[in-house]
Amino acid sequence: DAHQGRNQTPWSRHQTSRFRLWLNSYQKSIRNAKSFFFASLIDSEKYRPTALFRVVNQLLNPSCLHPSDTCGSQSCDSFLDYFSKKVDLIRSDISSDHFTIGDENFGRDFSNHAILLDRFLPVSDASIEQVLRSLRPTTCIFDPCPSWLIKECSRDWVPLFSGIVNASLEEGYLPAALKRTAVCPLLKQASLDPGDLGSYRPIPNLPFLGKVIEKVVAGFLREHLDQFDFYDRFQSGFRPGHSTESALVKAVSDLLTSLDRGLVAFLIQLDLSSAFDTIDHGVLLHRLEHLLGSSGSVLSWFRSFLEGRSQVVRLGSSLSAPAEISCGVLQGSILSPMLFAIYLLLLGAIAERFGVGFHCYADDVQLYLAFPANSPGEASVLEKCLNEIRSWMASNWLRLNQKKTEVLLVGRD
């Protein structure tokens, strides 16, 4: 204060002045370093909209939406119980009386043809090193060492990782230690009640080595889908050359074309309740075998990947008791988006059979039908198609979220 300032010796005033000078220089260096770092990061991601949005969002909304780190293990168990029961309730609402695989009338069945994918090819050290460098350095509590350290010393780790990856692919087996998941609850929106468990979204964190194996398998699976053109042409999610933009452009183009022809159109936006979490493993394995021609160690590996998984909820240093995951695919895993797209492969065929426009991005499904304004009765086709889709979804353990389903009538004034 002022009194202390008057009592300072010339030497202490000199030291204080130097301290302030160095402090200002330090703070300026920090600001410049931050500015350079984020400018470089934004520039490097300017052609990747998803990554660019993530960077900008972190800068504009730096507040932490995680539950308090002071929560005890009881809160962890409460979160785990809520997340598990939520999926159980959705599946219990789906009538098992109508359950059927549902592949008989749609798609392509290769069960009587030569095996298309019965084993994985060996992976080279160069490919493993490329995978290690491409993965984000996210570390799971089950990892024995930080993933950033593995990436920094990737060349030294390559022989070990290569041996483990090739052994897993050859034997068709994923070790149980790599199927453990640490879930962190994340508040969906800052405006939601943090005391309500329903306000949180489970964010899974997986072991780094498991993600390396997934990345390799995803490469084989993507190559297989490309080679035999297994992609649903109406699906814009999780496939090369497609995005939310392609989904919007297709739907808007079809609707504008209908308006130019003097027609009106109904657009229905469907939403699924926790779609990734309710996927049935038996149905998915059936798709992989009979639609994609998987067999042998490949099918065994996918079965091992899906079954025997467990999860814990982590809040700070507290952990819940482990719980089994009996259905679903984790949204945080590398393979899950591709597996989900495979699970929905037959959905577009239903809409096509009714002559209804169809497009989707992941679990966001759009149905639209154009008809003359003086013939509203033709809209009943859309209702029949919707009922068929609802029935197919129920038979495949998926449930439409009616609260988020929206209907839009498109026409000219």
From TrEMBL:
Cited Pfam families: RVT_1
Limits of the Reverse transcriptase domain: 167-413
PANTHER family linked: REVERSE TRANSCRIPTASE DOMAIN-CONTAINING PROTEIN (PTHR33332)
The name this protein goes by in its record: Reverse transcriptase domain-containing protein
